[in-house]
Amino acid sequence: MNIRASLGVLAATLAGLLSLSGCAVNPVSGEQEFVLMSESQELALGRRMHPQILEQYDTYDDPELQAYVQRVGEELAAKSHRQDLIYRFTVLDSDEVNAFALPGGYIYVTRGIMAYFQAEEELAAVLGHEIGHVTARHSVRQYSTQQATGLGIALGSILVPELRDRNVQNLLGSLGTALVRGYGREHELEADRLGAEYLARSGRDPDAMIDVIRVLKAQEEFEKARAEQEDREPRTYHGVFATHPANDTRLQKVVAAAERYHQGAYRPPKAEAYLRRLEGVTFGPPAREGVVRGDHFYHRDLGFGLRFPAGWRIENKSDRLLAFAPGNDAILQLTTQDLNKRLGPRRFMAERMNLKTLEDDRSLEVNGLAAHTGLAPIESPWGRRLARHTVIIFRDRAYILTSAAKDPDRPRAYTTEVLNSAFSFHPLTAGERELAAPLRLTVIRADRDTRFADLAAKSRISSYAEARLRLLNGYYPDGEPRPGELLKVVR
């Protein structure tokens, strides 16, 4: 099912169902507000969208972890302004650093963001923030505002819009500009305030909300440093993280205000117990997206491996593999398409890719597999370029390697490197199946000699290992672990 098309139909259906105007009491403020969606419509929308979210993402296959997150979320929801809702908390099998909510109490957190928390209180802060979006009916209020001004529909949330991930953008892109931009700062601050209140009411220190924003600030700083090193624009939004959360006066005020909701001492932080729950959790892309090991890529489910040019930067996306030459002077992309009939690679290129005329048009044999290569123009990141297209037929799929050089006058500059990658494509061997297993978090105890540089040298993280280990353990960009401290490493 095409989720964006489905949601587009859903949005059109809702537009016909909703009344022309209406007022309702806001569950948080107790005041009348102008809305264009009844509570029953809000709940129905969540029910309809939840299965579609689970088509876009997989649920993380760890019943104990799922039950744990549900329990923590329910403790907070029981202290919320909409205690009558049934809340469903789902851990998604995604390495993206993200959390979001649907109307009606459907709340999602990725294992990717959970990996970077140091204690249960930070997880609770994220869940509390998303509960705040639901209880304050932010999606309904934003929808009503956008409909009133003719700008579109808003049906979701994200913990921090500045870190909105690619899947949620794709998922919600058809629902209007409001979702692409995320909630405004006023709604985000209100969700922070409500999340901090629910933390305090449940006996947790509301300062955990600031700790979470600190984690996300570190993620943004890492992305900026990485982008500078890779000579590209950072993939972040600017505004909320202009200053460090410790210096954000408005955030400090809304969090401090939550202290009046709890008398006495807060619960002791659950750091060690939380870290132990992360033992064995997948780190990085899920197995269904394959695993990068240095210059090699292995895909257990599809049963193939290949090697990219040495020194090229590899990015494993959910729908493609990308490799960039040093200096971003060339790009190599691997995608795959199902075959419905037995097409040879040249016929596939002509019929499915519309590449009827090729330069350097020739057949290849790649480790016993039929393949074909040739040159034809495409739209590249640098504009129109003559690109090399190579198709390899393996089992019931066509694997498509497409490469282009930045210099328009040197379209064949990386022919040797690209074709060597194509010739490295092969069915997985029995020994390689272990390499195709996903990376997993392991918890160790630091001693007096433990240093992040040494841990990085032994890590299976393929790139920026030291920086990522620092992020995982709250030490980005510097500092060293204390003896006796529990640390997350990747093996």
How do the helices and strands line up, and which of them pair or pack?
Elements lengths: L2 H15 L5 E3 L6 E3 L4 H18 L6 H15 L10 E5 L6 E4 L3 E5 H4 L5 H16 L2 H12 L16 H7 L4 H5 L3 H17 L6 H22 L19 H8 L14 H7 L4 E2 L7 E3 L2 E4 L4 E4 L5 E4 L4 E4 L5 E9 L6 H7 L7 E8 L2 E12 L2 E12 L2 E9 L9 H9 L2 E2 L4 H4 L3 E7 L6 H7 L6 H8 L13 E5 L1
Parallel strand pairs: 3-5
Antiparallel strand pairs: 1-2, 4-5, 6-18, 7-8, 8-9, 9-17, 10-11, 11-12, 12-16, 13-14, 14-15, 15-16, 18-19
Helix pairs in contact: 3-5, 5-9, 5-10, 9-11, 16-17
Helical run tally: 17
Low-confidence segments: 1-21, 151-181, 237-242
Rg over C-alpha atoms, rounded to the nearest angstrom: 25 Å
Q: Main sheet?
A: 7 strands, antiparallel
Distance between the termini: 35 Å
Q: In terms of structural class, how would the helical and strand content be classed?
A: alpha+beta
